[in-house]
């Protein structure tokens, strides 16, 4: 046998001689000249990029949070783990938590710092990774100016397959971090529980073929082919691993009720799913489906309240706007309904989109006489009023709470319904004190209303402090107490004669 070569000693360090900046942009490139151990000299290009952090975010319901976004290198959308640049002076864990919240809306219950690795041999970047356990959705993403994407989750069982696809820029970094994580000594119970789960994922036998369809996805794929009587047992089988109060199980059962035309049964399940911490792409879908169900059971105001703050950057935002337009129409607000529908349509038009959007802002309700009911709620020299702020079209004003009377509905019942929809309260005493006529012209918009005015008593409103405000549930305004002696002096109080009537109710003359 030939002699084995002598062991090679530690390589000698190169001696830096000079550096020269050659590019300064999002990344910076410099050329370094080195003297090599053999005496020769050589130039090397070095890419300077700030350190980054990647977050392996696992939810309480055994899913992994992803952020799909377009990447200019591959020129395609990649299903990425959340993460980003570490700010100067920022700790890697703090940066990871911040990036997770900004990109996805999730926050963790506990974190583990899995260390860092060099991005490449000629790159200054260190790529840090943290493992985030017990993640929960706490709000909407807070994307930067040029940041767009989609937040979604995948089953934890599919994580290794996803990392192995190569369709992710930090798959190797994540695998290194997971191996560090499973070998760590941990004190936190949440992290220890996740550590056991990750160990099982890393040890799972079998090839890393593409993920098989989720059982729930399979149910919905086959739903159209199943007899209605077989749908509930089939969904029960798909949801078998999940407890009854699991947010995904609640959401899927609500969806099946919707599918079967049982909207009244779907509504409480949608609400329960959202309250239980439903996460990922199911949240916007649940809001839309809840709103649709509310509208179908005769509660368009409730539907409006669910959809009014829908994030405009969500991929389902156009659908949400369509359902909002339907709810507004059913709620007797045809002009806002048409404006909403046109604004949703405008971005899809290959031409004239800007014109349609501009004209949508000018849509006004058709000229007609409208029957409405309003409430006069007085307390200690004050009256409860809905507050409308100043806009480009009109100055600030106050209005007695209330709204339109629907066909077949008495004025008193309309009053009770409006206070329930707007403020979420029930009233004990509704007494008609007048019927007035309100003819107005504000900012070029004219109106004609026949107004049933009611003196209203409510224990809930009596308990409301004079300095408190309540949000209007189906709108963007709020209500609060205003001094009777300041009505129409400080701000106009509508409808006409409402101020005088409120003072008469307060002094007992009416």
UniProtKB/TrEMBL annotation:
GO molecular function, one term: hydrolase activity
The UniProt record lists the keyword Hydrolase: yes
Keywords, alphabetical: Hydrolase
Superkingdom, taxonomy of origin: Bacteria
Pfam family membership, one: TPR_5
Record GO biological process: nucleoside phosphate metabolic process; ribose phosphate metabolic process
Gene3D superfamilies: Nucleoside Triphosphate Pyrophosphohydrolase, Tetratricopeptide repeat domain
Domain Nudix hydrolase intervals: 48-176, 367-504
Known cofactor(s): Mg(2+)
InterPro entries in UniProt: NUDIX_hydrolase-like_dom_sf, NUDIX_hydrolase_CS, NUDIX_hydrolase_dom, TPR-like_helical_dom_sf, TPR_5
Name of the protein this chain belongs to: Tetratricopeptide repeat protein
Organism from which the protein derives: Microbacterium radiodurans
């Amino acid at each position: 046998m030939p002699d084995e070569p002598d062991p090679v000693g530690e390589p000698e360090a190169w001696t830096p001689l000079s550096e020269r900046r050659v590019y300064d942009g999002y990344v910076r490139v410099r050329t370094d000249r080195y003297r090599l151990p053999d005496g020769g000299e050589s130039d090397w290009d070095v890419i300077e990029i700030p350190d980054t952090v990647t977050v392996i975010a696992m939810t309480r319901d055994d899913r992994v949070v992803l952020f799909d976004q377009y990447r200019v290198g591959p020129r395609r959308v990649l299903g990425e783990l959340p993460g980003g640049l570490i700010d100067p002076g920022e700790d890697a864990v703090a940066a990871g938590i911040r990036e997770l919240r900004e990109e996805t809306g999730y926050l963790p219950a506990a974190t583990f710092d899995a260390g860092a690795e060099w991005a490449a041999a000629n790159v200054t970047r260190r790529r840090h990774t943290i493992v985030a356990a017990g993640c929960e959705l706490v709000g909407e993403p807070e994307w930067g100016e040029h940041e767009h994407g989609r937040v979604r989750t995948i089953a934890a069982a599919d994580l290794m397959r996803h990392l192995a696809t190569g369709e992710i820029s930090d798959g190797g970094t994540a695998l290194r971090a997971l191996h560090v994580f499973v070998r760590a000594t941990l004190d936190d119970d949440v992290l220890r529980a996740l550590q056991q789960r990750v160990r099982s994922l890393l040890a799972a036998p079998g090839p890393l073929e593409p993920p098989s369809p989720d059982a729930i996805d399979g149910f919905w794929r086959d739903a159209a082919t199943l007899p209605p009587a077989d749908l509930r047992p089939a969904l029960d089988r798909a949801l078998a691993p999940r407890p009854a109060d699991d947010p995904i199980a609640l959401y899927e059962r609500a969806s099946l009720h919707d599918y079967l035309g049982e909207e009244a049964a779907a509504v409480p399940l949608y609400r329960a799913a959202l309250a239980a911490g439903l996460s990922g792409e199911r949240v916007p879908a649940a809001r839309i489906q809840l709103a649709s169900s509310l509208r179908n059971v005769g509660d368009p105001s409730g539907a409006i309240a669910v959809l009014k703050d829908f994030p405009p950057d969500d991929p389902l935002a156009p659908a949400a706007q369509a359902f909002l337009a339907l709810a507004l129409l059913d709620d007797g607000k045809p002009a806002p309904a048409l404006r909403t529908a046109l604004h949703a349509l405008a971005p899809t038009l290959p031409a004239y989109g800007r014109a349609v959007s501009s004209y949508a802002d000018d849509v006004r309700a058709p000229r007609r006489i409208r029957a409405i009911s309003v409430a006069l709620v007085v307390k200690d020299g004050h009256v409860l009023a809905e507050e409308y702020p100043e806009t480009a079209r009109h100055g600030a004003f106050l209005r007695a709470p209330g709204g339109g009377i629907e066909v077949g509905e008495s004025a008193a019942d309309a009053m009770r319904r409006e206070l329930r929809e707007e403020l979420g309260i029930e009233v004990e005493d509704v007494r008609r004190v007048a019927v007035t006529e309100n003819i107005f012209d504000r900012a070029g918009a004219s109106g004609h209303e026949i107004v049933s005015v009611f003196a209203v008593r409510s224990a809930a409103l009596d308990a409301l402090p004079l300095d408190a405000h309540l949000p209007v549930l189906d709108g963007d305004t709020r209500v609060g107490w205003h001094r009777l002696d300041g009505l129409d002096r400080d701000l106009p109080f509508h409808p006409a004669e409402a101020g005088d009537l409120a003072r008469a109710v307060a002094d007992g003359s009416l």
